[in-house]
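Input (Glycosyltransferase 2-like domain-containing protein):
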Amino acid sequence: MKLSAIVATRNEGKMLGPCLESLGFADEIIVVDMESSDDTLTVARKFNVTIINYPWKRFDYSGPRNKGFEKSQGEWILYIDADERVTPLLRKEIIRSISLPAQAGNSENQYSAYAIPRRNIIFNQEFKHVGQWPDYAKRLFKRGKFQKFEGAVHEEPVFDGVLGHLTNSMIHNKHENISEMIEKTNQWSDIEARLMFEAKHPQMNIFRFASAIVREFWLRMISQRAFLDGTKGMIYALYQAFSRYVSYSKLWELQIKDKK
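Output:
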């Protein structure tokens, strides 16, 4: 079974190399680059990959993934981000899973897609709580069953058939430090605020602000047991509440401007 791996990038020169190294088992690797201004393409060219240039659009994260699918040739498609790594055990499980029909003599694999668990590394520590494990992501799809990704921020795949779940995980280097987290929050909150505004979110006020922030912190710290990840877990829970505050503050700005 031929496997195509697709990586969408934008200024991922720091992370891309190890990602592509972990994909050496794939029959085809496609890098869809969104106008990177760093050394992303230089890093990509060190590997046997196909590079596709795609226009950068702040509210379009499904587009580059779908473009990669259009250009791919594999019978199975694996999507992976530049800050993720396929472990040796996961590699073996992927090969075994997409080869099931030939091994078992079945005419068709019962699964048309697989979700893969992710080990999220935050502050150089693997988080087991705060909603960070097993953190399944739908990433492996059978051609003919997969249709497309849709959605601007948290893009979701559209496919026909049954979803399976792999046992072995990929590594996700999610956040290295506070500065990086704040930078990402500033970027993603623009998109989230715009989507909420377009969805006609109720006018933000003091009560909605307070409720959203307290609810988010309670969810992370108590319900998802961030305290079991120690001081780093508490910092992450507070960060999530802060991130929610930033998104709603930007939504409030859009709502105020719209009234003028």
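The chain has two domains: 3-174, 177-259.
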